[in-house]
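[recover] target loaded
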């Protein structure tokens, strides 16, 4: 079952169960996917849908921290609830050891020798890590490895 089909089934289940928060979040995700398809004039595959889910989660995290800073815990709680719902569509996250192993493999495969090769390494890692690791953290690890090695 593709991610799009799973979203459709989950939306129907949320309607039947009258889970309005979950239904609203799924509809928001589907609207973001549809908007991207209209902009690109093509149907998105699962990896592109995953990138949209990650982007929406990142937006929700930023909003929640802003709401907490602005002393609005009610709105922050709503954003965090949406993060939980959206996170269900991401694959199982990788452990730090697995991420380090993939970084080591990517560095050797791309023959990276210094910080100037960071983009090359990250581009080779992105398909494997999409939705399974925080790319900002991965970028920091790659930078540290290339600066030290």
């Amino acid at each position: 079952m593709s991610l799009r089909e799973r979203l459709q089934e989950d939306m129907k289940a949320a309607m039947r169960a009258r889970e309005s928060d979950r239904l609203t979040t799924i509809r928001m995700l589907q609207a973001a996917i549809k908007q991207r398809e209209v902009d690109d004039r093509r149907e998105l595959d699962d990896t592109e849908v995953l990138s949209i889910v990650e982007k929406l989660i990142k937006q929700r995290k930023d909003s929640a921290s802003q709401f907490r800073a602005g002393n609005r815990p009610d709105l922050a709680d709503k954003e965090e609830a949406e993060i939980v719902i959206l996170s269900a569509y991401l694959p199982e996250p990788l452990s730090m050891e697995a991420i380090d192993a993939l970084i080591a493999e990517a560095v050797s495969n791309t023959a990276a020798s210094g910080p100037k090769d960071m983009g090359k390494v990250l581009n080779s890692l992105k398909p494997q890590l999409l939705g399974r690791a925080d790319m900002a953290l991965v970028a920091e690890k790659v930078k540290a490895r290339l600066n030290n090695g």
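[recover] notes: Helices lie at 3-17, 20-40, 46-69, 73-87, 96-110, 118-129, 135-148.
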